[in-house]
Task: inverse folding
């Protein structure tokens, strides 16, 4: 009986260490996003800036489309993903000097903001919504694996 208890205690210890390591990893990632970059603002500062600047530009249809496109993301991470994606959409809208967020700007920003591993879900969702992805094909190559370094220059070249 004591051998079983010993194994349970060891198993419980490994489980706790594993869960703390996972939590620590996510906390560390959030900490890194809060660190200021060369311009003096952090990634999260820029996300808030673009959200605040473009909040009035969103129509109900675009909000609903964003909500539908984010639906495959697990519910635990959905709010964070939606905020990050919406800020990238806002950044692109401001860069293009748009008065409002259009469906084209929304899809373009969504594609650029999502990692390549999620593109198959996005393509499937756009296909379900009967949205032709042909005009957006170039943006799939600018996604997170590529865009973090010099994405603005490549984005402008593709326009």
Result:
């Amino acid at each position: 009986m004591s051998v079983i208890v010993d194994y349970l205690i060891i198993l419980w210890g490994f489980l706790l260490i594993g869960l703390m390591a996972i939590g620590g990893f996510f906390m560390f990632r959030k900490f890194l996003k809060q660190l200021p970059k060369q311009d003096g603002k952090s990634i999260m500062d820029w996300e808030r800036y673009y959200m605040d600047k473009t909040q009035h530009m969103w129509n109900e249809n675009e909000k609903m489309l964003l909500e539908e496109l984010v639906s495959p993301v697990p519910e635990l991470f959905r709010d964070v993903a939606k905020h990050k994606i919406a800020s990238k959409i806002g950044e692109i809208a401001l860069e293009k000097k748009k008065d409002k967020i259009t469906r084209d700007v929304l899809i373009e920003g969504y594609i650029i903001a999502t990692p390549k591993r999620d593109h198959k879900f996005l393509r499937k969702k756009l296909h379900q919504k009967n949205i032709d992805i042909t005009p957006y094909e170039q943006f799939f190559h600018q996604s997170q694996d590529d865009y973090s370094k010099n994405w603005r220059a490549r984005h402008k070249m593709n326009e």
Observations:
- The chain has a mean pLDDT of 84.
- The chain has two domains: 1-34, 37-158.
